[in-house]
Design goal:
The chain is built from three helices and 22 strands. Helix 1 packs antiparallel against helix 3.
Amino acid sequence: MKRYLTALLAFVSFHIPASAAVDCTAGTSPCSPRDTCCPSGSFCNFNRGIPVCIDPQFPIITGFDHNSRCADPYLMDCSQLIGVGGFCCPIGTVCYNNGLDQHVSCVDAYGTTASSFPSATVSVVPSATPVPIDSPAVQFNPSNAWNSSSAPISNCIPGNIVRVTNVVNATVSFNYTGQSILIHTVKSPRGGVFSMTVDSVPLNDTIDTFNAGGELCFPVQFPPFRKPPPGFALRNDHSITLSFQGPSKNAPKDITSIDVQFGSFAIPQVQTAGSALTTGLGAYQLILLTFFVSYCIIGKFDSLLSPAI
Protein backbone atom coordinates (compact mmCIF):
# COMPACT_ATOMS: atom_id res chain seq x y z
CA MET A 1 0.00 0.00 0.00
CA LYS A 2 2.75 2.44 0.92
CA ARG A 3 4.53 1.65 -2.35
CA TYR A 4 1.44 2.59 -4.39
CA LEU A 5 0.90 5.78 -2.41
CA THR A 6 4.54 6.75 -2.87
CA ALA A 7 4.22 6.35 -6.64
CA LEU A 8 0.96 8.30 -6.71
CA LEU A 9 2.44 11.05 -4.57
CA ALA A 10 5.38 11.35 -6.95
CA PHE A 11 2.97 11.51 -9.92
CA VAL A 12 0.90 14.31 -8.38
CA SER A 13 4.01 16.27 -7.37
CA PHE A 14 5.49 15.95 -10.85
CA HIS A 15 2.31 17.15 -12.54
CA ILE A 16 1.81 20.33 -10.56
CA PRO A 17 2.29 23.08 -13.16
CA ALA A 18 5.17 25.44 -12.43
CA SER A 19 3.28 28.36 -13.95
CA ALA A 20 -0.18 28.86 -15.36
CA ALA A 21 -0.69 30.39 -18.78
CA VAL A 22 -3.96 31.75 -20.04
CA ASP A 23 -6.21 29.00 -21.42
CA CYS A 24 -8.09 30.43 -24.40
CA THR A 25 -11.14 28.69 -25.83
CA ALA A 26 -11.46 27.59 -29.43
CA GLY A 27 -11.50 30.47 -31.88
CA THR A 28 -9.56 32.82 -29.60
CA SER A 29 -5.88 33.46 -29.07
CA PRO A 30 -3.88 34.68 -26.05
CA CYS A 31 -3.05 38.38 -25.92
CA SER A 32 -0.73 38.07 -22.93
CA PRO A 33 0.64 35.30 -20.72
CA ARG A 34 -1.93 36.32 -18.12
CA ASP A 35 -5.67 36.48 -18.61
CA THR A 36 -6.61 37.97 -21.97
CA CYS A 37 -7.90 36.15 -25.04
CA CYS A 38 -8.62 37.90 -28.34
CA PRO A 39 -11.52 36.74 -30.53
CA SER A 40 -10.97 35.42 -34.02
CA GLY A 41 -10.23 38.16 -36.54
CA SER A 42 -8.66 40.54 -34.03
CA PHE A 43 -5.04 40.99 -33.05
CA CYS A 44 -3.30 41.71 -29.78
CA ASN A 45 -1.84 45.14 -29.09
CA PHE A 46 0.53 44.94 -26.11
CA ASN A 47 2.61 47.97 -27.05
CA ARG A 48 1.83 49.84 -23.81
CA GLY A 49 2.05 46.89 -21.43
CA ILE A 50 -1.77 46.69 -21.46
CA PRO A 51 -3.29 43.79 -23.45
CA VAL A 52 -5.90 45.23 -25.84
CA CYS A 53 -7.64 43.26 -28.59
CA ILE A 54 -7.87 45.29 -31.81
CA ASP A 55 -10.37 44.46 -34.55
CA PRO A 56 -9.09 45.88 -37.86
CA GLN A 57 -12.70 46.14 -39.06
CA PHE A 58 -13.38 48.97 -36.60
CA PRO A 59 -11.64 52.33 -35.97
CA ILE A 60 -10.69 51.50 -32.38
CA ILE A 61 -9.03 54.29 -30.40
CA THR A 62 -6.99 53.83 -27.21
CA GLY A 63 -4.77 56.13 -25.22
CA PHE A 64 -3.36 57.20 -21.85
CA ASP A 65 -1.75 60.27 -20.33
CA HIS A 66 0.06 60.05 -16.99
CA ASN A 67 -0.25 63.81 -16.46
CA SER A 68 -3.94 64.39 -17.23
CA ARG A 69 -6.41 64.17 -14.36
CA CYS A 70 -10.14 64.56 -13.83
CA ALA A 71 -11.76 65.88 -10.64
CA ASP A 72 -10.25 62.92 -8.77
CA PRO A 73 -6.44 62.44 -8.70
CA TYR A 74 -6.87 58.69 -9.30
CA LEU A 75 -8.81 59.27 -12.54
CA MET A 76 -7.24 60.10 -15.91
CA ASP A 77 -9.04 62.37 -18.38
CA CYS A 78 -9.91 60.46 -21.57
CA SER A 79 -11.30 63.49 -23.48
CA GLN A 80 -8.16 64.55 -25.34
CA LEU A 81 -6.96 60.99 -25.77
CA ILE A 82 -9.84 59.47 -27.71
CA GLY A 83 -11.99 62.45 -28.66
CA VAL A 84 -14.95 61.54 -26.47
CA GLY A 85 -15.56 64.09 -23.73
CA GLY A 86 -16.86 63.68 -20.20
CA PHE A 87 -15.26 60.35 -19.29
CA CYS A 88 -12.34 59.28 -17.10
CA CYS A 89 -10.47 56.04 -16.50
CA PRO A 90 -8.47 54.99 -13.43
CA ILE A 91 -4.73 55.55 -13.53
CA GLY A 92 -3.03 52.30 -14.53
CA THR A 93 -5.46 51.72 -17.43
CA VAL A 94 -5.91 52.86 -21.02
CA CYS A 95 -9.01 54.64 -22.31
CA TYR A 96 -10.77 52.58 -25.00
CA ASN A 97 -13.40 53.46 -27.60
CA ASN A 98 -14.56 51.32 -30.52
CA GLY A 99 -14.80 54.33 -32.84
CA LEU A 100 -18.47 53.68 -33.57
CA ASP A 101 -20.22 55.20 -30.56
CA GLN A 102 -19.59 57.37 -27.49
CA HIS A 103 -18.98 54.51 -25.06
CA VAL A 104 -15.64 54.67 -23.22
CA SER A 105 -14.13 51.65 -21.45
CA CYS A 106 -11.00 51.23 -19.33
CA VAL A 107 -8.56 48.32 -19.79
CA ASP A 108 -6.06 47.41 -17.06
CA ALA A 109 -2.76 45.50 -17.00
CA TYR A 110 -4.58 42.17 -16.84
CA GLY A 111 -6.78 42.94 -19.84
CA THR A 112 -9.84 43.42 -17.64
CA THR A 113 -12.30 45.86 -19.23
CA ALA A 114 -14.55 48.06 -17.08
CA SER A 115 -16.82 51.03 -17.68
CA SER A 116 -15.40 54.53 -17.43
CA PHE A 117 -16.38 57.17 -14.86
CA PRO A 118 -18.15 60.50 -15.46
CA SER A 119 -15.58 63.29 -15.33
CA ALA A 120 -17.07 64.81 -12.17
CA THR A 121 -16.56 61.62 -10.14
CA VAL A 122 -14.58 62.04 -6.92
CA SER A 123 -13.45 59.89 -3.98
CA VAL A 124 -12.16 57.04 -6.11
CA VAL A 125 -9.57 55.25 -3.99
CA PRO A 126 -8.11 52.12 -5.61
CA SER A 127 -7.50 49.02 -3.56
CA ALA A 128 -3.76 48.83 -3.02
CA THR A 129 -1.31 47.66 -0.37
CA PRO A 130 0.96 50.56 0.61
CA VAL A 131 4.64 49.96 1.23
CA PRO A 132 5.77 51.93 4.32
CA ILE A 133 8.21 54.66 3.38
CA ASP A 134 10.62 53.43 6.07
CA SER A 135 10.48 49.83 4.86
CA PRO A 136 13.96 48.32 4.29
CA ALA A 137 12.65 47.23 0.89
CA VAL A 138 12.54 50.88 -0.22
CA GLN A 139 16.09 52.08 -0.90
CA PHE A 140 17.00 55.80 -1.01
CA ASN A 141 20.39 56.54 -2.53
CA PRO A 142 22.43 58.33 -1.46
CA SER A 143 20.59 58.27 1.84
CA ASN A 144 21.87 61.71 2.89
CA ALA A 145 20.32 63.27 -0.23
CA TRP A 146 16.81 62.63 1.07
CA ASN A 147 15.01 64.43 3.92
CA SER A 148 11.78 63.42 5.66
CA SER A 149 8.94 65.91 5.90
CA SER A 150 5.24 65.96 6.73
CA ALA A 151 3.08 65.61 3.63
CA PRO A 152 1.85 69.07 2.58
CA ILE A 153 -1.64 67.73 1.89
CA SER A 154 -3.55 65.65 4.44
CA ASN A 155 -4.86 62.22 3.40
CA CYS A 156 -2.77 62.39 0.24
CA ILE A 157 0.14 60.11 1.10
CA PRO A 158 -0.12 56.87 3.12
CA GLY A 159 1.45 57.70 6.47
CA ASN A 160 1.43 61.44 5.65
CA ILE A 161 5.24 61.48 5.33
CA VAL A 162 7.21 62.35 2.21
CA ARG A 163 10.87 62.08 1.33
CA VAL A 164 12.24 65.13 -0.45
CA THR A 165 15.41 65.61 -2.50
CA ASN A 166 16.92 68.37 -4.62
CA VAL A 167 20.01 66.34 -5.52
CA VAL A 168 20.12 65.42 -9.19
CA ASN A 169 20.43 61.65 -9.78
CA ALA A 170 19.27 60.80 -6.25
CA THR A 171 17.21 57.61 -6.51
CA VAL A 172 14.52 55.60 -4.78
CA SER A 173 14.27 51.89 -5.65
CA PHE A 174 11.94 49.01 -4.87
CA ASN A 175 11.50 45.35 -5.88
CA TYR A 176 7.91 44.15 -6.11
CA THR A 177 5.72 41.25 -7.20
CA GLY A 178 2.74 41.86 -9.45
CA GLN A 179 1.89 43.38 -12.81
CA SER A 180 1.31 46.96 -11.60
CA ILE A 181 2.99 49.49 -9.34
CA LEU A 182 1.37 52.61 -7.84
CA ILE A 183 3.59 55.59 -6.98
CA HIS A 184 2.44 58.38 -4.67
CA THR A 185 4.04 61.78 -5.27
CA VAL A 186 3.14 65.43 -4.73
CA LYS A 187 3.00 68.11 -7.42
CA SER A 188 4.18 71.60 -6.51
CA PRO A 189 5.38 74.91 -8.05
CA ARG A 190 8.96 73.74 -7.47
CA GLY A 191 8.35 70.12 -8.49
CA GLY A 192 10.91 68.43 -10.70
CA VAL A 193 10.97 65.29 -12.82
CA PHE A 194 11.65 61.63 -12.03
CA SER A 195 13.06 59.37 -14.74
CA MET A 196 12.23 55.66 -14.52
CA THR A 197 14.08 52.38 -14.81
CA VAL A 198 12.01 49.18 -14.68
CA ASP A 199 13.57 45.71 -14.64
CA SER A 200 16.97 47.36 -15.24
CA VAL A 201 15.71 49.00 -18.47
CA PRO A 202 15.70 52.83 -18.68
CA LEU A 203 12.29 53.95 -19.96
CA ASN A 204 10.99 56.97 -21.84
CA ASP A 205 8.32 57.41 -19.17
CA THR A 206 8.79 60.16 -16.60
CA ILE A 207 6.89 61.51 -13.58
CA ASP A 208 6.59 65.28 -13.84
CA THR A 209 5.71 66.77 -10.44
CA PHE A 210 5.53 70.43 -11.50
CA ASN A 211 2.28 72.32 -10.94
CA ALA A 212 2.26 76.12 -11.10
CA GLY A 213 -1.03 76.39 -9.23
CA GLY A 214 0.06 74.84 -5.94
CA GLU A 215 0.52 71.45 -4.31
CA LEU A 216 -1.59 68.50 -5.45
CA CYS A 217 -1.74 64.79 -4.73
CA PHE A 218 -0.25 63.06 -7.74
CA PRO A 219 -0.50 59.25 -7.80
CA VAL A 220 0.79 57.51 -10.92
CA GLN A 221 0.44 53.84 -11.87
CA PHE A 222 2.40 51.72 -14.36
CA PRO A 223 1.69 50.13 -16.77
CA PRO A 224 0.73 51.61 -19.16
CA PHE A 225 4.19 52.47 -20.45
CA ARG A 226 5.21 54.37 -23.54
CA LYS A 227 7.14 51.22 -24.31
CA PRO A 228 7.27 48.37 -21.78
CA PRO A 229 10.54 46.67 -20.84
CA PRO A 230 11.15 43.56 -22.97
CA GLY A 231 9.44 40.49 -21.49
CA PHE A 232 7.65 42.53 -18.81
CA ALA A 233 4.46 40.43 -18.97
CA LEU A 234 6.41 37.17 -18.75
CA ARG A 235 7.66 38.00 -15.27
CA ASN A 236 5.81 38.58 -12.03
CA ASP A 237 8.80 39.91 -10.08
CA HIS A 238 9.93 43.40 -11.04
CA SER A 239 12.19 46.25 -9.97
CA ILE A 240 11.69 49.99 -10.28
CA THR A 241 14.04 52.93 -9.75
CA LEU A 242 13.04 56.60 -9.82
CA SER A 243 15.81 59.12 -10.37
CA PHE A 244 15.49 62.89 -9.86
CA GLN A 245 16.51 64.58 -13.12
CA GLY A 246 15.98 68.28 -12.41
CA PRO A 247 13.34 70.82 -13.47
CA SER A 248 10.25 70.17 -15.53
CA LYS A 249 10.11 71.52 -19.08
CA ASN A 250 6.91 73.23 -17.97
CA ALA A 251 8.62 75.14 -15.15
CA PRO A 252 9.65 78.81 -15.53
CA LYS A 253 13.13 79.25 -16.97
CA ASP A 254 14.20 81.33 -13.99
CA ILE A 255 13.10 78.80 -11.34
CA THR A 256 15.76 78.44 -8.64
CA SER A 257 14.26 75.99 -6.13
CA ILE A 258 13.58 72.53 -7.51
CA ASP A 259 12.89 69.25 -5.72
CA VAL A 260 10.73 66.15 -5.82
CA GLN A 261 8.46 64.83 -3.09
CA PHE A 262 8.14 61.03 -2.96
CA GLY A 263 5.33 59.58 -0.85
CA SER A 264 5.29 55.79 -1.23
CA PHE A 265 4.98 52.78 -3.47
CA ALA A 266 1.86 50.61 -3.33
CA ILE A 267 0.85 47.30 -4.89
CA PRO A 268 -2.57 47.47 -6.59
CA GLN A 269 -4.94 44.65 -5.69
CA VAL A 270 -6.53 43.32 -8.87
CA GLN A 271 -9.22 40.65 -9.11
CA THR A 272 -8.96 38.93 -12.47
CA ALA A 273 -9.77 35.71 -14.23
CA GLY A 274 -6.32 34.65 -13.07
CA SER A 275 -7.89 33.95 -9.70
CA ALA A 276 -9.24 30.77 -11.22
CA LEU A 277 -5.71 29.78 -12.15
CA THR A 278 -4.58 30.43 -8.61
CA THR A 279 -7.45 28.32 -7.34
CA GLY A 280 -6.42 25.59 -9.74
CA LEU A 281 -2.91 25.53 -8.32
CA GLY A 282 -4.41 25.43 -4.85
CA ALA A 283 -6.41 22.39 -5.82
CA TYR A 284 -3.27 20.60 -6.95
CA GLN A 285 -1.59 21.50 -3.70
CA LEU A 286 -4.64 20.27 -1.77
CA ILE A 287 -4.52 16.96 -3.60
CA LEU A 288 -0.83 16.66 -2.84
CA LEU A 289 -1.40 17.46 0.81
CA THR A 290 -4.28 14.97 1.02
CA PHE A 291 -2.19 12.15 -0.38
CA PHE A 292 0.75 13.10 1.78
CA VAL A 293 -1.38 13.02 4.94
CA SER A 294 -2.98 9.76 3.81
CA TYR A 295 0.44 8.29 3.26
CA CYS A 296 1.59 9.30 6.71
CA ILE A 297 -1.56 7.98 8.42
CA ILE A 298 -1.60 4.69 6.52
CA GLY A 299 2.11 4.36 7.06
CA LYS A 300 1.53 4.62 10.80
CA PHE A 301 -1.19 1.96 10.66
CA ASP A 302 1.05 -0.30 8.59
CA SER A 303 3.79 0.02 11.19
CA LEU A 304 1.35 -0.91 13.92
CA LEU A 305 0.04 -3.92 12.03
CA SER A 306 3.44 -5.16 10.87
CA PRO A 307 5.14 -7.69 13.17
CA ALA A 308 8.33 -6.58 14.82
CA ILE A 309 11.49 -8.14 13.43
